[in-house]
Amino acid sequence: MAHGIKLHLPVFLLLIFVFLKQYQVHGESKVPCYFIFGDSLVDSGNNNNLETKAKVNYPPYGIDFPGGPTGRFTNGKTVADIMGELLGFEDFIPSFLIANGSEILKGVNYASGSAGIRHESGKQLGVNIELDKQLENHQTIVSRIVDMLGNESAANLLKKCFYWSVIGSNDYLNNYFMPQYYNTSSQYTPDKFAESLVKQYSPQIMTLYNSGARKMALSGIGPLGCIPHSTSNYDTKGSLCVDSMNDAVNYFNSRLRSLVDQLNNDLADATFVYLNPVDFGSGYKASPGFSLKLSGCCKANEYGQCIPNESPCYFRSFNLFWDSFHPTEISNKLSARLSYQTLKKIL
After folding, report:
1. 253, 265 in Cβ contact below 8 A?
2. Is 4 a member of any domain?
3. Measured between alpha carbons, how far is 260 from 164 in angstroms, rounded to an integer?
4. Signal sequence span per UniProt (predicted)?
5. Average pLDDT, the chain
6. Is 8 a catalytic residue?
7. Of 40, 44, 112, 335, catalytic
8. What pLDDT does 15 receive?
9. CATH code assigned at 201
10. pLDDT of 226-236, one tens digit each?
11. Is the pTM of this model over 0.85?
């Protein structure tokens, strides 16, 4: 994406302004609690104490976040943080690493950088908390909530909460597209790999349902072939993006939509929503003299993360990407507000 893709800046900023005005939140939160599952797009610090290269509790990460670096893989708030604000929460949902006491009644963030649906995804970077383990951690929190409230009150609370899963990117970036570490690309065609992933994801979602979840959103995977890491390390074959990577992800998204439809048909007492990833595609033209940069805002190391203590770009609101993989806060704001529009029917 660093190869000349541009967005219409005035239109983009106008969208941000409209969403900011339209979805300003006042008063009580729309749900009593909010639970977050996923990867580095929504991780708020769960990897900080793990033996892994996939942790970012150092500057310049957090340069625009209150209090500085926290382990969030961006310059400011994640898309999950902004969604929390839109839902009406005054405080950020705590990470499982630090969640304690009665604050767990408002929700917990279990997400882990480099984690995937598959257990092994991202493990070449070190330890991560894969989705199965995140679900185990959630069961621990559910047990604590039951201890606090009793079975009936806990069940009544949990069915009103909002559950969001943002995962799957690492099953591609740190698995399928890394044949030097994983053999999945030799075992599966892209279509069959997507089928395998969703087949594994389905019972994981049912585990969440069986723990009391009744309002759930499942996010699709964005155009991985257009992120700075992909366009810098793979042959684009004259295209603006690595089209083969985007095609592979589209198989997953299509199957995930079908899974959401199936879950809604089979489970009448629950509501599932598929959230489209924001596609900052190449079909936009720039106004004369203006463009949004789709290269990373900071100098990246061999893992695609910001080099510690290096100064990032100054005008961060003009960059869609923070490092080689992750969006800037301005991108997260647009993504969260577009997702919130879709979610209103279950809130």
Report:
1. no
2. no
3. 13
4. 1-27
5. 90
6. no
7. 40
8. 53
9. 3.40.50.1110
10. 999 999 999 99
11. yes
Tell me how crowded residue 45 is: count the other CB atoms within 10 A of its CB.
Answer: 23
Summarize pLDDT for 129-143 with one digit per residue, the tens. 999 999 999 999 999
Apex CA 92: angle with CA 88 and CA 96, to 5°?
Answer: 130
Domain membership flag for residue 56: yes
pLDDT class for 14, splitting at 50, 70, 90?
Answer: very low
Residue 2 lies in a domain: no
Distance of CA 151 to the CA centre of its chain: 31
Q: Which of 323, 324, 331, 335 is catalytic?
A: 323
Instruction: Determine how many CB atoms are found less than 10 A away from the CB of residue 142.
Output: 19
DSSP, residue by residue, 285-332: -PPTT---EEEESS-B-TTSSBPTT----S-GGGEEESSSS-B-HHHH
pLDDT at 19 over 60: no
Q: What is the pLDDT of residue 186?
A: 98
What whole-number distance in Å separates Cα of residue 130 and Cα of residue 241? Answer: 28
Task: Say how many C-beta atoms besides its own lie within 10 A of residue 187's C-beta.
Answer: 11
Asked if 40 is an active-site residue, the reply is yes
Q: Whole domain around residue 310: which residue ranges?
A: 9-346
Give CA–CA dist 94/45, Å, rounded.
9
Q: Given a cut of 60, is residue 125 above it in pLDDT?
A: yes
**How many domains are contained in the chain?**
1
Dihedral pair phi/psi, residue 151, rounded to 5°: -60, -50
Q: Which of 43, 169, 326, 335 is catalytic?
A: 326
Asked if 261 is an active-site residue, the reply is no
